[in-house]
């Protein structure tokens, strides 16, 4: 709703009350007028004009410049006609009385303080001509109308500028959220495939190595694009910059990042080793608005190296929120598998804990890897590796939740993801 729209409605009320007041003053002092007929005719015309043009002062679009000129001309004409009706100066107020402030305020609402200043000066000059001299009362009334109209005009200009700024900010926020969503999808699919092609091509050699090199270059360019043009810097000893995933080239513990195409399926999973983390989400969540049991989505991640602990009762969230939460958990597990060494074979063990609280659903992903070096996450984000910021924190932020990451060198990494429950 426009900030100025209530002011237009207030102006409609003011004009109606003002014309009724002017008519009341005239009727009350009728016998004191030396020539009441011209005054009565003018007030009849003024009343008809006021009620007939209420629609014109309903908004800035309807309040056109020709209407404003006619409106203020009618007010000035009433001021200059007052000496004819009140030749003995017995009544005091002019025929339009306080109604004449309405056109000035309309100028202020339509064009800002500059239009208001011009209209108030015109009305002030008409009052001085009607009185024939500048008296204290005349000067006070003119100054009051002038200050009030200019102040309102200035407030309108500020309100309009604020509305434009707010609208632009909302557009930027919407565009940023959409870009982050697209960047998450790209990170969780295209970038991972390109990284896999680069690694496999390098390992196979020959023509495949050239294909891998080209895939690595495209990965670098795409990472720069989704991270607002921040070009990734090559890691130490890395032949192709950007070839390593989310946490960068140095090995670190993982609960946080993008999906992998090498996820180990859980017991009973009817998928091959190339199933990515999004498959579990697709298996248990759809685009419907009904509730979804988060346990069903997360249980597919359980395996020989992933332990899943869940409540005995269903943990329900809207399908879209449950799917995004499961995708964030999959991203965390992918980084555990890719970056956290811990067991005898250099692979870490991970644990998933699902908790159902009265106001939120909490999922904790912990691993026994070596932990993340201090400052590594910030450096990875600067290099265009947006796994933690987009695939995990971005998803939780869009759901109104949070993702807290704690890493202790030598003791592994823990990510706590909290999604609030929204009661219908």
Automatic annotation (TrEMBL):
It comes from the Bacteria. CDD domains: HATPase_UhpB-NarQ-NarX-like. The keyword Transmembrane helix applies. SUPFAM superfamilies: ATPase domain of HSP90 chaperone/DNA topoisomerase II/histidine kinase. Residues 228-287 are annotated as: Disordered. Residues 1-167 form the DUF5931 domain. Residues 325-421 form the Histidine kinase/HSP90-like ATPase domain. Keywords: Kinase, Membrane, Transferase, Transmembrane, Transmembrane helix, Two-component regulatory system. Residues 276-287 have a biased composition (Low complexity). InterPro entries: DUF5931, HATPase_C_sf, HATPase_dom, Sensor_HK_TwoCompSys, Sig_transdc_His_kin_sub3_dim/P. The chain crosses the membrane at residues 12-30, 36-54, 66-85, 105-126, 138-156. GO terms for cellular component: membrane. Residues 178-226 form the Signal transduction histidine kinase subgroup 3 dimerisation and phosphoacceptor domain. GO terms for molecular function: phosphorelay sensor kinase activity; protein dimerization activity. PANTHER family: NITRATE/NITRITE SENSOR PROTEIN NARX-RELATED, OXYGEN SENSOR HISTIDINE KINASE NREB. This is Two-component sensor histidine kinase. It comes from Streptomyces albus.
